[in-house]
Write a structure and sequence with these properties.
Elements (H helix, E strand, L loop, with lengths): L12 H33 L2 H8 L2 H28 L2 H36 L4 H14 L3 H16 L4 H24 L3 H26 L15 H32 L4 H38 L2 H34 L6 H15 L5 H13 L4 H26 L2 H5 L1 H24 L5
Helix pairs in contact: 1-2, 1-7, 1-8, 1-10, 1-11, 2-5, 2-10, 3-4, 3-6, 3-9, 3-10, 4-5, 4-6, 4-9, 5-8, 6-8, 7-8, 9-14, 10-11, 10-12, 10-13, 11-12, 11-13, 13-16, 14-16
Length: 448
């Protein structure tokens, strides 16, 4: 496939960011559809118990995948810096070191996930009737962690150099395979939760093989060479310095959400299943908005490397506006068509009503998260990751845990549990914006 890399340091930013983000939006939506297909097929063809079993694993899956995505963001930022500065030696060293770091992370998460799945689900007070299916789903799903790490690595490299089309193509191929295998394993083979997990793992390895093969075949400075695969000390340290805090932030963020899941699990199995169905909207909206965060980090990274102060600032505001608009539009559509959306995952009226509790509140809240997440991406684009991570831990993680044990414990209603999202996003956003303004002024003082 012809290279589609772009110089993000020149040209009209509004148009560039939108064109850059559209393939990312489609790519992210396809990744969400992997999991949505799992839940939809199970919910419609295997019943509410299987739906609840798969749905109860969502946060734990996101805990591990979020770490890999965060680690890849460090790869994205450093690749963009070197590409924007025209530092081809640094670019090659970064990409080859990152490949090994991400591979190691994928294997480690495979071992940890399979070994701790049952214990964690019990710690979360997962309903006994859901535990067996949930453990089986997780142990199969975690076999795909190395593939997920490889795909996110390749996606980060291609996005950093302005090529968002190839990862979309590879994910499209894997997505078709995933849907076909879901239907085959569940309907034809009767494998319910095991079937959808197997389909996801197979599709993840297909997308990983395609993106890594493309990097090995590339003749550009960011292409992989077998003989060059080694840990460069300084580049590895830089990847870890940005990627690990980012990955930990995503992981700890989901760890805090585990406390929310514990709160949900105190209600009936019907409420758990309804929450599981409605949570699919979270992933869909977040990942559409996340495309603009990736654009923000890539554009700021390249322009920071090129020393272009004005384009750094404008990239931030344009990406923020796009992500806020996407969150607002999708939230409005879910508010209007929430019942139809939930109908994709369940035909049980009680489960649907339970899901509407979450969907109604969240549809009005999604857009607020843009102020937090886009600003975090902007700070990382400038090479700063540790402080944004600390802010998120305090503002969105610690705050959520406190909310669960105070506000939710006092009112004991599902509404009081779901409201913590918008409050935690707002508090965190204020602190993240203040930090970014400080860093931007510090880093751009000597730029022309």
């Amino acid at each position: 496939m012809k290279t589609a890399q772009q110089d993000l340091t020149q040209g009209p930013l509004e148009k560039q960011i939108m064109l850059f983000s559209i393939p990312l939006v489609l790519s992210n939506v396809l990744q969400v559809l992997f999991n949505m297909a799992d839940v939809a097929v199970v919910g419609r063809f295997a019943g509410p118990i299987a739906l609840g079993a798969v749905g109860s694993t969502t946060i734990l899956v996101m805990l591990f995948t979020g770490f890999l995505i965060g680690l890849a963001s460090g790869v994205n930022v450093l690749t963009a810096h070197h590409f924007g500065a025209g530092d081809w030696k640094g670019l090659s060293d970064t990409v080859h070191s990152a490949a090994l770091v991400c591979a190691a992370a994928g294997v480690l998460l495979l071992a940890v996930g399979c070994g701790t799945a049952e214990a964690v689900l019990k710690l979360l007070h997962t309903k006994p009737e859901l535990t067996g299916g949930a453990v089986l789903y997780l142990r199969i799903y975690f076999l795909g962690m190395p593939a997920l790490a490889a795909f996110n690595f390749g996606n980060a490299v291609f996005s950093a150099v302005g090529d968002t089309r190839r990862p979309l193509f590879y994910l499209s191929v894997a997505g078709v395979v995933n849907v076909v295998l879901n239907l085959f394993f569940v309907i034809a083979c009767g494998l319910d939760v095991a079937g959808v997990a197997m389909a996801s793992v197979i599709s993840q390895y297909i997308s990983a093989v395609l993106v890594v093969t493309a990097l090995f075949r590339s003749r550009e400075g960011y292409g992989l060479r077998l003989w060059a695969l080694r840990f460069n000390k300084s580049r590895t340290r830089a990847i870890v310095a940005i990627g690990i805090p980012s990955g930990m932030q995503n992981g700890i963020f989901e760890l805090a959400n585990l406390f929310i899941q514990m709160g949900v699990n105190t209600f009936s199995a019907t409420m758990v299943a309804g929450n599981s169905a409605a949570t699919n909207a979270d992933a869909l909206v977040y990942d559409v908005m996340a495309a603009f965060y990736t654009a923000c980090g890539s554009f700021i990274g390249q322009n920071y490397g090129a020393g272009k102060k004005d384009r750094i600032r404008r990239s931030y505001f344009i990406s923020m506006a796009y992500s806020f608009g996407a969150g607002s539009l999708l939230g409005l559509l879910l508010l209007l068509f929430g019942r139809q959306f939930l109908g994709l995952f369940t035909t049980d009226p009680a489960v649907m009503e339970a899901g509407l509790h979450r969907l109604t509140i969240m549809s009005l809240s999604y857009c607020v998260s843009a102020f937090m997440d886009c600003t975090i991406a902007a700070s990382r684009g400038l090479g700063r990751s540790a402080v944004p991570t600390v802010i998120v831990i305090l503002g969105s993680c610690v705050f959520r845990i406190i909310w669960v044990y105070t506000v939710f414990a006092w009112f004991g209603t599902i509404v009081s549990l779901y409201l913590l999202y918008v409050f935690s996003w707002s508090i965190t956003a204020i602190a993240e914006i203040a930090y970014f303004v400080h860093v931007y002024r510090q880093e751009t003082t000597e730029m022309t």
